[in-house]
Design goal:
By secondary structure, the chain is mainly alpha-helical. It has six helices and five strands. The strands form two sheets. It has a three-stranded antiparallel sheet. The chain has a two-stranded antiparallel sheet with strand order 1-2.
């Protein structure tokens, strides 16, 4: 009986000690982002989270330069079958980057949706693909 009480007391003291160990700021933040499932730690993320745009000014300028913010803008003279939408994506470029690499949009018809085009273009600018637009350098200098 006394051994089990001693063991219980040790576990209670050890358990309370773990909760009162001073934590670094990183450990305190990480603790909220992880959940214990069995013996593994799995990150928790909100499936509805939408990352804020990074290049808002540059994208706004590019949209004005490319199409005057017109989601129905179409330039048939552009190579590779023409350019479409607010950011004048060529359909092969939209398909390669937005649909295949970044998984944004559901089909090449998503090129007409300014929000989808803007989000995809933001990822492209982050990854260094601003050269895909002739207006990029001009808009970048205007910041």
């Amino acid at each position: 009986m006394s051994k089990s009480l001693l063991l219980l007391a040790i576990l209670l003291i050890w358990g309370s000690y773990i909760f009162f160990i001073p934590k670094t700021p990183l450990e305190a933040v990480s603790e909220r982002l992880l959940t214990i499932q069995g013996n593994t730690l799995s990150p928790i993320s909100n499936p509805n989270y939408i990352r804020p745009l990074i290049h808002t000014y540059t994208l706004g300028c590019m949209m004005m330069e490319e199409s005057t913010n017109n989601p129905s803008a179409y330039n048939p003279d552009d190579p590779n079958g023409g350019s479409c939408g607010c950011l004048q994506f060529q359909k092969p470029t939209f398909s390669d980057f937005c649909l295949n690499i970044y998984s944004i949009g559901t089909s090449t018809d998503s090129v007409w949706n300014c929000d989808i085009s803007r989000r995809c273009a933001d990822y492209m600018l982050i990854d260094g693909y601003g050269h895909k637009w002739t207006t990029y350098d001009r808009c970048l200098k205007g910041q």
